[in-house]
Amino acid sequence: MRFLPFVLALLSAQAEIAERVTRPTFQGQGDGTLTVVSVPENVPLEFYTVRCESAGGEAATFSVTRSGDEATPPTSTVGQIYRETERGISFRIDKGEQLFAVGDRFSFVTYPNLEELHRLFDNWVNQYVKWIISREEKARFQELQSPSDKLLFMESFWRRRDLDPETPENEARQEHQRRFAYAMQTFGAG
Description:
The chain is an alpha+beta fold. It has five helices and eight strands; from the N terminus they run αββββββββαααα. The chain has helices spanning about 5-20, 115-130, 135-145, 145-160, 170-185, and strands at about 25, 35-40, 45-55, 60-65, 70-75, 80-85, 90-95, 105-110. It has a five-stranded antiparallel beta sheet with strand order 1-8-3-4-5, covered by helices on one side. Strand 6 (about 80-85) and strand 7 (about 90-95) form a beta hairpin. The longest helix is centred in the last third of the chain and has 17 residues, at about 170-185.
């Protein structure tokens, strides 16, 4: 019973963190986990990708990017708490029974509030991919409730369109980004 206040405080802290970060998603062969340990209150909207660069059980190392740029520090190791110096995000990667493989990756999003995140999801489906998403895909996306499920859908959406899944780049996504930027620059948002 003497641990009850500690457990309640820990659960309360995790609930506060959950209001500012999506549940990490995973893509790959390993079965380990990434646990977000802390997220500061003033966190901006950022997309984190944590990718396995060298396998090896307890010695596996991961590169960390924040919204496409290298985070500081740029790498994390299994079993150690990673602390991103610029934003104050911290997380820990734990190995599972199945070892991580090079290319395995976690991703999560930090956000200042849910309204901002939902606005961005609406913009993604109604503007950014408006001309390439099928009616069925759009309906499925709009049925999803949690930010993590929507992010998984978005990753799957681009993965299905990847012209060469063996390369780290998604050529279809890059081409869409190029065309969207051109259309916005040439014709505007109207």
